[in-house]
């Protein structure tokens, strides 16, 4: 059992005592102004922490002459900007009072019979130590052994010199420490038959990204979340994804969220003689233009960014262009999973209560760091058929088990710190996982796995990998590239250029910025009929994050967009908010702007026709086509943007981008003289008149009479070029004329001249 101590005291007499189990306590204890640490070793010897000098006082180059570190900055931004390169250093107080030790409400590591015992003084006198040792040993001896011991004591008192404990140097700890490696496992990708994939449901990505948000974080305040569990996640990587990648991520989130809050059972799917449990619904990633390699990368980054979905296994099934996340078999049953979710939440709440006692972000990080490291043993059997826990790739292994690997350390720390309001994300190399944490608006690397000594080197917990820069981490701390991130993180994670200078026995210091990034400038851009926005900041090298729905932007805490430098389209009346961030500087204040389309006036010049009212139109919108104007003896030919009638306005496709006037084009109505091809008598005392077609004619008027002077002529009209006229008298000769007509813009008929007369005798 971890954190248990066996002490061997004095005169070669072995005594056994149980030391306190402090899974959720701070790293050190303070007594009478002197910082000491009770470290428990597997060999049973209680020793002073190697960070103590012989006089019991810790000395560190990070401490002031009076031995007290100053408290880290509160994180508030100074009002006035100082020179850019000046950095003041805050030092974290690493001396914890014994009275302020965080106590765990649920000790998941020690059995019921192990009780916590406080060590009053690590420097007991030799006499009191010997007395305690003898009493303890006598309790384990037979009467004969005790009598023999008493005789020996009376006749020949033993005087044995106490060995002097030598403090272990920080450099020796790092030099002699071989951290565990290889615990991060790449996700399994299990192929399934196409018919199997088609038998399952497919999530509609549009529904997955519908933006329904019901929960408002009490810590972050400015962001509405999908559920109370979202406070444990990070959005840093999500904010830098493309639109299709965000769509895939949102669909994954929807599926996992349903299993977190619901009691739906996982699907049991046979694959080549084995059974896997997976979600009932999958995502058709092929329709999103994503490759199978990319969805594997997205799945890994999603899992580490959303560790609250502890039941999602380390892999997925894939087939027919869709993927289905694997569910751990132990959480496949919905009722069982609901009970386990409650257990996880209770443990998180207990640990968060202790983290909340930290006065600064750094202090909160140290408490969370120590809580996890003191609670957990590294599972060196994770590759064996039967490991200490089947959930070592899940945060569940930390909260509800006693063993884990780097994946569990990392995911649990991400949950606890984000839940405490400190932006934290998880990253991976091919074989390892660790954290990045934002303190004083700058990012640092944090590796709890390599800080958990599990009693080696005389320490339970060290701080050698606490708030380190990437350069130091990849340099002297890890020369084997276990912290070289996978390629999928390129451009997806923040820089970490500052280093705390931590040692195994000191958390070091973090920088306090003295300058603030200039607030972004948000500008409206109207181009190509689209309403766009552009953002800039005068601070060189700063990154900008923005939202378009009025929510608060951030690099990690909220769902935002990473500004790539190109203008982006927004809706009319959209509220754009933006924040600028840069390593070593305080984040800027959030800028806000309401982006509205400009309003333009379009006038109509009818050029002699009736008046048409002007229209007020927003930029990029289409004009409402007015009724055609009217003008006697003229036909309307359309609206043009110029008086020379070169560019016609198309209402169905063109949009307004400026103030303008449209001009009516007119054409005087003239009708050609009609011409009769022939007139023939048809049976029934009728005649048929055939005409030549007049282009543009709306119709034709016919007149006929029995005299050539056309007196008392009758008239009929028709639309076509032939007309049959009946009710004629047999034996009579009829004279016929025709004229075409057109209509002007008012609907008035404009006639052409009468044609030459034609005649026909009605014989039948």
Description:
- The chain is an alpha+beta fold.
- Among the domains are: 188-331, no CATH class; 351-513, C8orf32 fold (Roll); 521-591, Sandwich (Immunoglobulin-like); 599-668, Listeria-Bacteroides repeat domain (Immunoglobulin-like, Sandwich); 676-761, Immunoglobulins (Immunoglobulin-like).
- Helix content is 18%, strand content 25%.
- It contains 13 helices and 39 strands.
- The strands form 14 sheets. Strands 34, 35, 37, 38 and 39 form a 5-stranded antiparallel β-sheet that branches. The chain has a 4-stranded antiparallel β-sheet with strand order 24-23-26-27, with no helix packed on it.
- Helix 6 packs across helix 7 and helix 9 packs antiparallel against helix 11 (406-419).
- The longest helix is centred in the middle third of the chain and has 22 residues, at 334-355.
- 40% of the residues are buried.
- Mean pLDDT is 81; it is low at 1-166 and 207-225.
List keywords for this structure.
764 residues; alpha+beta; C8orf32 fold; Immunoglobulin-like; five-stranded antiparallel β-sheet; four-stranded antiparallel β-sheet; disordered N terminus
- The end-to-end distance, rounded to whole angstroms, is 126 Å
Helix/strand class: alpha+beta
> What overall geometry do the principal axes of the alpha carbons give?
elongated
Largest sheet entry: 5 strands, antiparallel
């Amino acid at each position: 059992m971890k954190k248990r101590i066996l002490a061997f005291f004095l005169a070669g007499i072995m005594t056994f005592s149980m030391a306190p189990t402090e899974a959720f306590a701070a790293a050190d204890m303070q007594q009478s102004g002197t910082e000491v640490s009770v470290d428990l070793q597997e060999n049973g010897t209680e020793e002073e922490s190697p960070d103590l000098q012989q006089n019991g006082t810790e000395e560190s180059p990070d401490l002031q002459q009076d031995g007290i570190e100053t408290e880290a900055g509160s994180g508030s931004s100074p009002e006035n900007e100082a020179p850019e390169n000046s950095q003041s250093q805050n030092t974290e107080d690493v001396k914890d009072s014994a009275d302020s030790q965080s106590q765990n409400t649920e000790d998941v590591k020690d059995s019921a019979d192990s009780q916590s015992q406080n060590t009053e003084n690590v420097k007991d006198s030799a006499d009191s130590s010997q007395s305690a040792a003898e009493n303890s040993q006598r309790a384990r001896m037979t009467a004969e052994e005790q009598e023999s011991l008493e005789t020996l004591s009376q006749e020949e008192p033993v005087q044995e010199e106490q060995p002097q404990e030598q403090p272990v140097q920080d450099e020796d700890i790092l030099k002699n420490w071989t951290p565990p490696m290889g615990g991060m496992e790449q996700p399994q990708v299990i192929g399934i038959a196409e018919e199997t994939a088609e038998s399952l449901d497919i999530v509609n990505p549009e529904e997955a990204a519908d933006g329904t948000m019901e929960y408002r974080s009490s810590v972050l305040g400015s962001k509405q979340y999908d559920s109370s569990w979202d406070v444990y996640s990070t959005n840093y990587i999500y904010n830098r994804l493309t639109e299709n990648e965000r769509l895939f991520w949102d669909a994954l989130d929807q599926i996992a969220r349903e299993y977190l809050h619901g009691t739906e059972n996982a699907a049991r799917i046979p694959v080549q003689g084995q059974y896997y449990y997976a979600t009932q619904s999958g995502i058709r990633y092929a329709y999103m233009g994503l490759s199978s390699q990319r969805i594997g990368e997205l799945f890994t980054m999603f899992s580490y960014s959303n560790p609250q979905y502890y039941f999602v296994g380390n892999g997925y099934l894939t087939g027919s262009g869709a993927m289905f996340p694997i569910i751990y078999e132990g959480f496949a049953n919905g009722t069982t999973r609901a009970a386990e979710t409650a257990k996880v939440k209770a443990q998180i709440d207990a640990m968060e209560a202790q983290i909340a006692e930290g006065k600064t972000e750094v202090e909160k990080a140290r408490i969370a760091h120590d809580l996890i490291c003191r609670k957990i043993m590294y599972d060196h059997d994770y590759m064996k058929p039967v490991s200490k826990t089947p959930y070592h790739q899940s945060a569940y292994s930390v909260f509800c088990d006693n063993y884990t690997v780097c994946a569990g350390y990392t995911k649990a720390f991400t949950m606890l710190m984000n839940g405490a309001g400190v932006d934290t994300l998880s990253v991976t190399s091919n074989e390892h996982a660790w954290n990045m944490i934002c303190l004083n608006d700058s990012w640092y690397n944090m590796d709890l796995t390599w800080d958990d000594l599990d009693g080696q080197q005389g320490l339970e917990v060290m701080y050698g990998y606490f708030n380190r820069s990437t350069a130091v981490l990849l340099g002297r701390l890890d020369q084997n590239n276990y912290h070289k991130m996978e390629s999928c993180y390129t451009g997806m994670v923040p820089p970490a250029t500052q280093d705390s200078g931590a040692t195994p026995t000191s958390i070091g210091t973090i920088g306090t910025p003295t300058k603030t990034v200039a607030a972004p400038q948000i500008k409206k851009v109207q181009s190509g009929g689209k309403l766009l926005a552009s953002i800039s900041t005068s601070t060189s090298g700063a990154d900008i994050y923005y939202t378009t729905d009025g929510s608060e932007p951030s690099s990690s805490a909220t769902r935002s967009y990473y500004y790539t430098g190109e203008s982006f389209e927004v809706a009319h009346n959209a509220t754009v908010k933006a924040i600028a961030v840069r390593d070593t500087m305080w984040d800027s204040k959030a800028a806000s702007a309401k982006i509205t389309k400009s309003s333009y006036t379009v006038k109509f010049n009818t050029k002699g026709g009736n008046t048409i009212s002007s229209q007020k139109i927003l930029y990029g919108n289409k004009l409402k086509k007015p009724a055609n104007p009217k003008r006697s003896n003229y036909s309307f030919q359309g609206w043009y943007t110029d008086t020379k009638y070169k560019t016609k306005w198309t209402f169905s496709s063109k949009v307004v981008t400026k103030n303008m006037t449209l001009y009516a084009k007119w054409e005087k109505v003239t009708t050609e003289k009609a011409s009769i091809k022939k007139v023939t008598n048809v049976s029934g005392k009728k005649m048929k008149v055939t005409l030549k077609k007049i282009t543009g004619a709306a119709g034709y008027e016919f007149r006929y009479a029995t005299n050539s002077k056309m007196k008392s002529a009758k008239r009929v009209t028709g639309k076509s070029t032939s007309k049959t006229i009946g009710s004629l008298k047999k034996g009579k000769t009829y004279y016929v004329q025709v004229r075409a007509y057109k209509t002007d813009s008012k609907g008035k008929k404009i006639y052409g001249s009468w044609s030459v007369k034609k005649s026909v005798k009605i014989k039948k």
